Amino acid sequence: MSLSSQTLSGLQAIVGAEQVLTSQEDLIAYSYDGTAAMQQMPEAVVFPRSTEQVAQVLQWAQKARLPVVTRGSGTGLSGGSLPTPGALVLCLVKMDRILELDTKNLTLRVEAGATTQAVADASGAAGLFYPPDPGSMKISTIGGNVAENSGGLRGLKYGVTRNYVMGLRVVLADGTVLWLGNKCVKDVAGFSLKDLFIGSEGTLGVITEVLLRLIPTPQAKKTMLATFPRMDQAAETVSAIIAAQIIPCTLEFLDRTTIRCVEDYTHIGLPLDCEALLLIETDGHPAVVADETTRMEKICRDHGCQEVRVARDDAEAAQLASARRTAFSALARVSPTTILEDATVPRSELAAMVRFIQATAQKYQLRVGVFGHMGDGNLHPTVLTNERNTEEMHRVEQAFQEIFQETIRLGGTVTGEHGVGLAKKAILPKALGDESIRWMRHLRQLFDPAGILNPGKMVE
């Protein structure tokens, strides 16, 4: 469908003509997100600047039966912000203000379009800490983080986005504006409605404002890198660290393919004679940090590591951390198409899952790099391929079907942080069960009876 002149003029009257894009050339940048091999042109893109404008746009869209897909920076990896046919993209990047930093209550209130990095910087400037750190934090928006319930490298110790959301301003499909939550540390009055919207991927309402919980900045930290001759040794080391009741800030993993790609890209001196490496960071009180560093170094050596390198200072620590943070970018340079997936298993099953991914890559003759947040069981098998090679893409699809079936068999989940969107929609019923899917559908129908919000995503 194409926008009628009446619909277009109505949208322009709400946000201003310059805040509505309709030309094909302008729309191309909003026809895809960070998910490989997915694209769909929208009908138009609208840039609201306030919650009131969002409400008016949704009221107009409901009247016109116009599908609406909410978008931030478009860094998602499951097709959650991909336009659906005939859709209006509601892009919130211009709603990016830091509204309030409350050091008495340790909270930060921001508009949904503020980047995760801006949130971290504003918190840090006040001597406070916002822990969630998705890989795209420099450009991803906090509204998108909440909609996807994003994770990050520090998820093992500090949790995911949900653990830091104290309040939300949400606009429902009919334009109703809700404020959910408050600054109270304890609040058990009624249903926790805000939690319904966290991870809902824009299917229940549009998040326009977020109240975040902050914590004190850790006093000290230590970063170390351990290399292993076998991949399963690294996985078993992770399980041993957790079994020793040590919870580091980050516990990251790179396999040989990823190590080589990262070193080619960054030239930071990573060892190339190993099958896998762990990047470990502990933080907290200086005495605890020193003790945990010593204990983890011993655990690594007891499990056959070749070398343990402890960063001498902050500069070297940042350099070592960049090995993990640049993994996706480094792999993406190798082939025309990079498919980054997201599978999570109980930590006790890490070694088995890593071996299964290796065997599956060999079975389907695919080049696969594996990295991820091994401390919380979240692996990112990443296929280096070419979407123009139809036969190879079929093998990629078959391989991921087997990987996710094994993930479920091991008691895992098909997404730890990337969300469902379009990419995981087909396998979600196998992971959650038919009854859970049925109740998720009921919730969608309750909040959005006309079905205009992000249609076709997650569940229908």
Structure keywords:
460 residues, alpha+beta, Uridine Diphospho-n-acetylenolpyruvylglucosamine Reductase, domain 2, Vanillyl-alcohol Oxidase, Chain A, domain 3, eight-stranded antiparallel β-sheet, 16 helices
In short:
With 460 residues, the chain is α+β, with helices and mostly antiparallel strands. It has helices spanning 5-15, 24-27, 51-64, 116-125, 142-148, 155-158, 194-197, 231-243, 256-266, 286-302, 314-325, 327-332, 350-363, 390-409, 428-432, 434-447; strands spanning 20-21, 44-46, 68-71, 88-91, 98-102, 107-111, 128-129, 165-171, 177-181, 206-213, 215-216, 220-228, 250-255, 276-284, 307-310, 337-340, 343-344, 367-373, 378-385.
Molecular structure report:
Helix 1 packs antiparallel against helix 3 (51-64), helix 8 (231-243) runs antiparallel to helix 13 (350-363) and helix 13 runs antiparallel to helix 14. The model has no long low-confidence stretch (mean pLDDT 95). Strands 12, 13, 14, 15, 16, 17, 18 and 19 form an eight-stranded antiparallel β-sheet that branches. This protein has a five-stranded antiparallel β-sheet with strand order 5-6-10-8-9. The chain has a four-stranded mixed β-sheet with strand order 1-2-4-3. 47% of the residues are buried. Helix content is 36%, strand content 21%. The protein has 460 residues and is α+β, with helices and mostly antiparallel strands. The protein is built from 16 helices and 19 strands. It folds into three domains: 5-91, Uridine Diphospho-n-acetylenolpyruvylglucosamine Reductase, domain 2, CATH 3.30.43.10; 98-216, Uridine Diphospho-n-acetylenolpyruvylglucosamine Reductase, domain 3; 220-409, Vanillyl-alcohol Oxidase, Chain A, domain 3.
